[in-house]
């Protein structure tokens, strides 16, 4: 993988349901010997059979953040691959109508923190077959709708991101290429600072 830097960075994968986020994040973590944080919201969604309140979405964001912090403390390597974040939690809560105005302040804070919390956001595109999962996912049209909202939200917040398309291997290769370029940029910045 290469030593990107001494501190542990979080690399997050966002996008609508059934876009391959979990598969890709786990694949990269295993291949690179890196940490992995699963989508905590899925566990709570399944436990409550989709009947969530705004408070549940705050709990999802908090538990996900705790899992990220724990993964960072345990990780010996340079990064942790993360499946979704508070941006997705907030967006889905609003889409399902289970989070309404006024949005809980804690949920807004967690979503706002995403701008600086991660090394990079990767958006898994909806160019892979839709997998039907009753009670968890809606349908292919819903996926396309949510995917558009994810991109609009990232753009509105000014968050840099890379869209991943194609096969699992193509997506993984793109991730590693982008991370390599980020590290090269860091090296140049450090060298310039040292020379100043």
Describe this structure in words.
The chain is α/β, with parallel strands linked by helices and 196 residues long. Helix content is 56%, strand content 12%. It has helices at 21-32, 40-47, 54-74, 86-95, 105-117, 140-157, 168-195; strands at 9-14, 35-37, 79-83, 120-124, 161-164. It has a five-stranded parallel beta sheet, with helices on both faces. Strand 4 (120-124), helix 6 and strand 5 form a beta-alpha-beta unit. Helix 3 (54-74) packs parallel to helix 5, helix 4 (86-95) crosses helix 5 and helix 4 packs across helix 6 (140-157). The model is unreliable at 1-5 (pLDDT under 50).
Distance between the termini: 30 Å
Which geometry do the CA atoms define?
Answer: globular
State the assembly state of the protein chains: single chain
Classify the helix fraction into a percent range: 55-70%
Unreliably modeled segments: 1-5
List the secondary-structure elements in sequence, H or E: EHEHHEHHEHEH
Number of helices: 7
Q: What's the arrangement of strands in the largest beta sheet?
A: 2-3-1-4-5
> Which strand-content bin applies to the residues?
5-15%
Number of strands: 5
Query: What structural class do the secondary elements suggest?
Result: alpha/beta
Average pLDDT for all residues:
91
Described by strand count, sense and barrel closure, the largest sheet is: 5 strands, parallel
**Rg to the nearest angstrom?**
17 Å
List the helices and strands and how they pair.
Layout (H helix, E strand, L loop, with lengths): L8 E6 L6 H12 L2 E3 L2 H8 L6 H21 L4 E5 L2 H10 L9 H13 L2 E5 L15 H18 L3 E4 L3 H28 L1
Parallel strand pairs: 1-3, 1-4, 2-3, 4-5
Helix pairs in contact: 3-4, 3-5, 4-5, 4-6
């Amino acid at each position: 993988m290469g030593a990107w830097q001494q501190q542990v960075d979080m690399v997050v994968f966002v996008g609508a349901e059934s876009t391959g986020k979990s598969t890709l994040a786990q694949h990269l973590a295993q291949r690179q010997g890196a940490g992995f944080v699963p989508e905590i919201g899925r566990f709570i969604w399944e436990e409550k059979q989709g009947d969530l309140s705004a408070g549940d979405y705050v709990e999802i964001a908090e538990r996900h953040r705790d899992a990220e912090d724990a993964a960072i403390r345990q990780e010996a390597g340079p990064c942790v691959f993360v499946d979704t974040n508070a941006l997705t939690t907030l967006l889905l809560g609003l889409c399902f109508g289970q989070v309404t105005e006024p949005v809980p302040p804690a949920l807004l804070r967690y979503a706002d923190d995403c701008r600086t919390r991660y090394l990079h956001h990767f958006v898994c595109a909806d160019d892979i077959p839709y997998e039907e999962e009753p009670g968890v996912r809606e349908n292919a049209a819903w996926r396309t709708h949510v995917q558009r909202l994810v991109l609009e939200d990232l753009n509105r917040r000014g968050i840099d991101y890379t869209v991943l398309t194609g096969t699992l291997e193509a997506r993984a290769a793109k991730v590693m290429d982008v991370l390599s370029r980020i590290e090269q940029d860091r090296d140049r910045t450090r060298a310039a600072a040292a020379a100043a």
